[in-house]
Structures are given as structure tokens and as C-alpha cells.
Design brief:
The structure holds 2 protein chains of 2 kinds. By secondary structure, chain A is of the alpha/beta class. Chain A has 8 helices and 12 strands. Helix content of chain A is 41%, strand content 21%. By secondary structure, chain B is of the alpha+beta class. Chain B is built from 9 helices and 7 strands. A 5-stranded mixed beta sheet of chain B has the order 2-4-5-7-6, with helices on one face. A two-stranded antiparallel sheet of chain B has the order 1-3. In chain B, helix 2 packs parallel to helix 4. The relative contact order of chain B is 0.08. Classes of the chains: A alpha/beta, B alpha+beta. The interface between A and B is large, with 38 and 35 residues.
Chain lengths: 242, 345
């Protein structure tokens, strides 16, 4: 993992997925994007491949024939905190996704997925793992018209300074650290308030509401502070036109 | 019990009525029990009635010293009445049950047929389009130019999205019918509406979608994923069934212990008389071209009812469709602000 992302070497991605058609589609697309794809169709095979060839990222299906994909996440996270893990999952199984994310997955993509979305999520997960490696954070973080001066804790919207309470700023900070990635309710509660507040998600919702009202032009149709219903929040830095 | 009542009545009127009429009182009791109860109860009641009749009513009170002969005849008559009546009633009951079963079977069959025809149409049509496009990409590869190819591939993507919507709705309905597992918590309505609206941000294009929620609206105790689905289905209908360029308004407010939501478009509204039926499963209103499974509003109703709320449809004066639903707030919303900011990690 130490020699991650040498710029001219294609990154190696391990796909653990039992469906051959999905493997075929991803093999074709990822090769166009200069990724090297390794494939595994079971959790066992996947674990072996991780150990032997040390991929740069994992795309993981949760419904594997031999084991729940969540167990793969737990095992990987025991010895590697940084390896990006992107989960492929079926919508409407929110609880399953939360277990995967709280277990250490970086993000998820709902099946059926657009390849563009999957690649975007993969790049974001890559970026996170490399920025943690270097422990570097930009002095000013820009989200559309919102500028967050991380050194001076100052937030401006379209040039106008906005006053945030300590909790609001803290939440924004956490979301910035996970920019463009989903952050679960329990992750936010733990990081902002510490443990033992896990059952008080409604506080979080009210603070997020206030944060939206201060930062978003139309808080009922947020561009940046997005809700992932049943899961958590996602800070979108640049809403993509599709 | 009935025998006892008959006895009390008869004893009360002993002085005034003729002996034969007492027998009628008991006979009436036996009839009632035979119609209402099972055979065993009717037989027990008949026997008790005859015994009571002879014990309490027939002169030479308080003893069975009577000609056993009359006693046995009365007993047989009463038993016969009880048996005939219960047998008749049971036959009628079982016939009624059979008719009811048949009706349910017919309804289920009708439901299954409309489901099958809807599903086979709405899944097979996109499948046909996808298969057609894919095979022509495979087989006519050399003769297709870049524009043709793009068109075919774009068609595949669009049809898959449509199929995904149909299947998702079907699965949702199935799950809702199997009994909604409502996972409630306190939410600002604004967040739920916002989550649904952002899903459609691209689809809206430039169309005006105005969301008006009073900033002081209390939190509401609901299942966010389900209520979001209500908004998703309503927004989906707006995009499917109203002319391009028309606007949509979503207005919410508080009405005592309930929160109401009005979703109003400016399209063609509902056909007169359809306002109730639009919530029925597999019902499709008049549509020009766009066809759905007829499940969107049925799902909305199932979810709203699962929250002890109400939902109704009407056509506004300008002809647009209006859906109004109300949900109970669900108790006293928790106070927020108790978590001291100093407890920040």
C-alpha cells in the first residue's frame, strides 16, 4: 500500500462480485479508464487475492455466495484502514448499507448503477485515502459559493461571512473531511459529540437543517448538503450535470 | 341460560297465561338458540327447557312425578325442532361461506390478471426495446454510424431506467402489502422533501418546483424512507403526466396535531370521478403516451395509511391535480438544544 498511485502505473482494482455479467461490464469500462482489474467471484477468493496482490482499491458486492460482503470489510479493516472499499448494493436495503459503511466501507453505489457514477465514487475514495496519507488539508475549502477557511474557522457564502455555532462548524468540518462521500449518522454523532449519543439522531437532523439554512440558497432543495435517506449525509462539492 | 329466562318469564306470567302458551315461550327459546348456536348447545338447551317446563310450570310443581309419557313426547318434539333448525342453518352458513370464498377467489384472480397484464406489458416492452437495440448493435455493427449507435445505446439506458422504476415500485407494493414495517423517528419535513427533490434535480430541467415549508414547522415522527417515497412518487407523476414547462408547488403546514402537505401541479388534473380510484392498485388514469403500472399513488396511500394519515386527490379550479395528505405529528416533538455545545468532542 505504500507505493500507492504512482501516476503512470495503472491502479489495480479488485472486483469481488459473483455475477459474471457485471464483472464483464466493469472489466470493459475500467480497462478504458486505465485501471487494471482483478476479479474474484467469492469472498474467499477475494480475501486470497487481497493478500497476494495488494490491490489499490476494492469494489465489493455485498451479496456473495459464500459470505456476507460485510465480513470481508471487517477482515480487511483489521489490518488495513486505508484501502478504499466501494460497496455495490441494492437500493432499499438501508440497514445493510449502514452496516457496511459503519464497518469501514468508504462509500456505496446502488445497483443498477451508471458506470460514470461508480468511477466518480472510486476516484473520491482514492483521493480520501491519499489525503489521509499525507495528512494535508487545503487552507481554504471551496464548495460552490461557500468558502471555508479551515485555518481561521471562517465561513463565507458568496463573499458574505456567515456565523456558525460550534456544532454547526464541527459538522461542516467532518463533512469536508469526507467530501463527496457518504457519512453515516452514527459517524457524525460520534465525531461531533463523542460516543453515547448514538440514539439522538434528531439533534443531528436539526443542526443539519440549520446548517443548510445558513449555507444553501434553497435549503429545501440543497445542492451541497445532501441527505442520504436512512443512511446519513453527503457533502457534494460540485454537483455534476448529467 | 335461555331456558332459565323462559322459566322466569313463564313463572312471572303463570297466573295470566294458558299452559299451552308456556310451551310456546319455551319453543321460542329453543328456536332462538338453534338459529344462533351450534348443534350441541341447541340440544342441551332443548333438554333443559323441557325439564324446566315440567319442573316449574306444569301443575304439581316442584317435582317430576308426572306421566313420563307426555314428558318424553315434549322432549322429542323440542329436540326435533332444535335438530332440524340447526341442520338447516348450518347448511345455509356453509353455502354462504362457499359463495364468499368464490368471490374472494374471483377478486384475487382479477387482481392477478390485471397484475400480470400490467407487469408483462411494462416489463416486456422495455425488454423488447433493449433486446432490439442490443442485437442491432451486435449484428449491424458495420452499417451503423456513430449517431445511430449513440441513439441505440441511449435507448437501452433509458429503457433500463424505466424497467428499474417499474420493478422497484412492484417490490415496494409487495413489501407494503406484506405489512409495512414503519421505522419511525423525528424528522424535519424539509429534509425529507429535500432528499426527494434532489433526486429529480436533473429531471426537472428548468421547471419551476417551489417548496414552501414554514421554518417553525415542528419535527414529525415518521419513517423517512417511506415518506420520501411518497414525495418521489408524486414528483414522478408530475414529470410523467404534466406538460413540459408547467410548475409544481409543494406547500406544508401545521393543522393542530397534524402536518398537512399539498402537492399541486398545473397539468390536466384527474378525470371527474377518478379522484378516489386513482389510489387503487393498477388503476391508470387517462394518459397520453406515458404509461405506468398504476402503483404510484397506491403506494402513497399505503404509506400514508401506515402512518395513520389521510390522503386525497382533487382537480383544482385551474384544472391541475392536487394531492393533499395529512400525517399526525406523532406526539410531542423532542426538545432540541439540550445537548450542550460544550460536550463537543
Amino acid at each position: 500500500m505504500t507505493d500507492y498511485a504512482a501516476p503512470d502505473l495503472p491502479a489495480e482494482i479488485l472486483l469481488i462480485e459473483d455475477d459474471p455479467e457485471i464483472r464483464r461490464v466493469l472489466r470493459t469500462t475500467l480497462s478504458l479508464e486505465r485501471y487494471n482489474l482483478r476479479e474474484a467471484s467469492t469472498a474467499m477468493e477475494g480475501m486470497k487475492t487481497i493478500a497476494s496482490c495488494q490491490p489499490d482499491a476494492i469494489i465489493l458486492d455485498l451479496g456473495l455466495p459464500d459470505k456476507d460482503g460485510i465480513e470481508v470489510i471487517h477482515q480487511v479493516r483489521q489490518w488495513n484502514k486505508l484501502l478504499p472499499i466501494l460497496v455495490l448494493s441494492v437500493r432499499s436495503r438501508e440497514q445493510h448499507k449502514i452496516s457496511a459503511l459503519d464497518g469501514g466501507a468508504d462509500d456505496f453505489v446502488n445497483k443498477p448503477f451508471a458506470v460514470g457514477e461508480l468511477l466518480a465514487r472510486l476516484r473520491v475514495a482514492d483521493r480520501r485515502s491519499s489525503s489521509i496519507l499525507t495528512e494535508r488539508m487545503d487552507a481554504i475549502f471551496r464548495i460552490g459559493q461557500i468558502d471555508v477557511d479551515l485555518a481561521r474557522r471562517k465561513v463565507t457564502v458568496a463573499g458574505e461571512e456567515v456565523h456558525l455555532t460550534r456544532i454547526e462548524y464541527k459538522l461542516l468540518q467532518i463533512l469536508i473531511r469526507h467530501a463527496d462521500m457518504v457519512v453515516t449518522h452514527s459517524q457524525l454523532l460520534n465525531e461531533a459529540w463523542g460516543p453515547n449519543h448514538g440514539d439522538q439522531v434528531h439533534y443531528l437532523r436539526v443542526y443539519m437543517l440549520q446548517l443548510r439554512r445558513k449555507l444553501e440558497k434553497d435549503p429545501a432543495r440543497p445542492r451541497h448538503l445532501r441527505t442520504e435517506p436512512g443512511i446519513g449525509y453527503r457533502l457534494i462539492t460540485e454537483p455534476l450535470a448529467r | 341460560m335461555v331456558a332459565a329466562i323462559c322459566t322466569v318469564v313463564s313463572v312471572a306470567f303463570r297466573k295470566r297465561i294458558d299452559m299451552v302458551n308456556f310451551a310456546m315461550v319455551y319453543l321460542f327459546g329453543v328456536l332462538v338458540v338453534s338459529v344462533r348456536c351450534h348443534r350441541a348447545a341447541a340440544i342441551v338447551n332443548a333438554t333443559l327447557s323441557v325439564s324446566a317446563f315440567y319442573y316449574f310450570i306444569v301443575p304439581v310443581h316442584d317435582s317430576f312425578v308426572l306421566e313420563d309419557y307426555t314428558y318424553i313426547i315434549t322432549l322429542c318434539a323440542m329436540l326435533a325442532v332444535a335438530l332440524v333448525i340447526t341442520t338447516l342453518i348450518e347448511r345455509v352458513r356453509s353455502q354462504a361461506a362457499a359463495v364468499r370464498d368464490a368471490e374472494i377467489a374471483i377478486q384475487t384472480e382479477r387482481m392477478r390478471n390485471s397484475l400480470l397484464s400490467a407487469v408483462s406489458h411494462d416489463i416486456k416492452t422495455p425488454l423488447a426495446a433493449i433486446y432490439g437495440a442490443a442485437t442491432s448493435l451486435l449484428e449491424e455493427e458495420d452499417r451503423l454510424n456513430a449517431v445511430n449507435r449513440r441513439e441505440l445505446v441511449g435507448g437501452i439506458a433509458a429503457e433500463v431506467e424505466r424497467m428499474n422504476r417499474v420493478i422497484t415500485n412492484l417490490l415496494k407494493m409487495t413489501r407494503l402489502e406484506a405489512g409495512v414495517h414503519v421505522k419511525k423517528d423525528w424528522y424535519p419535513l424539509e429534509e425529507i422533501v429535500g432528499a426527494a427533490a434532489t433526486r429529480f434535480e436533473h429531471a426537472f430541467g428548468g421547471r419551476s418546483v417551489m417548496i414552501k415549508i414554514p421554518p417553525d414547522l415542528p419535527l414529525i415522527c415518521v419513517d423517512d424512507v417511506l415518506i420520501e417515497q411518497v414525495f418521489v412518487n408524486l414528483l414522478d407523476n408530475f414529470l410523467k403526466y404534466t406538460p413540459a414547462g408547467t410548475a409544481l408547488e409543494i406547500i406544508a403546514g401545521q393543522d393542530d396535531s397534524r402536518i398537512f402537505v399539498i402537492v399541486r401541479d398545473h397539468g390536466g388534473g384527474f378525470s371527474p370521478g377518478d379522484e378516489e380510484r386513482v389510489f387503487d392498485k393498477f388503476f391508470r388514469g387517462k394518459t397520453d403516451g406515458e404509461r405506468g403500472l398504476g402503483l404510484g399513488l397506491a403506494i402513497c396511500r399505503a404509506i400514508v395509511h401506515g402512518h395513520e394519515g389521510t390522503i386525497a386527490a382533487e382537480t383544482a379550479l385551474d384544472g391541475g391535480a392536487v394531492i393533499r395528505f395529512e400525517l399526525p405529528i406523532g406526539g410531542a416533538p423532542p426538545a432540541v438544544g439540550e445537548l450542550p455545545e460544550s460536550s463537543l468532542a
